[in-house]
Amino acid sequence: MLSVLSFATSAMFLGLGLGRFAFSPIVPELVEQGWFSADAVQAIAAANLIGYLLGALAAGWLPKVFSERTICLLSGIAVVVSYAALLLAFGEVWFWSWRLLSGVGGALLMVIGTAAAGRELTRIGCKQFQPLVFVGIGLGVLFVALGLPTLLACGLGASLAGLTFLSAGAVMVLWVNSGFLRREKLHLLTTGQHKPPSSSTTLLIILAYGCDALGFVMHTIYLPDMLPRSYGHSEVQVALSWAWFGTGACLAPAAIMLLRRWVGPLDALWAAYLLKATGVALVLTASDPNTASLSLFIVGIFTPGLVILTSSALSSITRPDRYLGLWGAATATFAFCQMGSGMAIAAVSESGYQLALLASVGVLAVGAALTIAARLIPAGRKP
Asked: N or C: which end of the chain has fewer CB within 10 A?
């Protein structure tokens, strides 16, 4: 079990923590130090979101061509190479291409890596530990909040070199603990009874996951700009608030286990959407740093928390051989909505973020309503 969890943790730390979140603090430095214009940097940042969408779409058919072990290891290597390549400042297209590749690798690790780890935990009788598969997301965010500022103080080149070496270390952990993937196909079709899933139930859960993507972009991308601009928070206060986001993300597996015990596994999903909406709404009154920290802590819990619950919900209503396709479709929906949300917020950000925050709260509430509707549909019923 430890080997499986080590694999999953390194996959999430590498694919999302380093591959995606670690680049966000680098973006303003690229502008400030004259590497690129503000418009060019926005395009480079968007490349990762596009890559994430492409990777999620490819996750459904790539395992039919390559083994899961090969895909996961190559995806991890893609993140390492992408940071190493950025040390060679060959222009905007060069940066854009490598950030795109990093996004593809992150999505493949999210879909294929976590699905493989979850199946292996089920096979060895440790299904109750599946939420821990996603703990690497929180560790990555916490590193961005606490460790990356130290690297940035040493300069952009040192930061990119440090991220390259750290990514390489994560790939080594991924490789050492990937032995179970060689046997994965032998256990892909596990025994056990599954009720035929309603297509309406599946669709509603996936659409709700898209609402999560629409509602969380403000906190994960734009809040570091909003807090100082709208509320006058200092850089130290913003960094501390972001550290609380990482702390919440690290505690997500334990929090989700407690939520399931409190309200039951079937109701935990819609409850998580409402709690996350509450966390986002707190920022509307975050004139003091403590409120902002509380908001980020709550959203930090339910950012990987809703990933855990959505993955679990899809796994519980479908056969193991169909789960990878559904999880890939859900991740692609998430990636598409995330990209659309980012572009929409960027378009209105000059006039402030209040409208975007209100919209985020609203779509998360819609997500809760969709999951409640999915809960009420009898198994096997067709639309």
From this structure: C
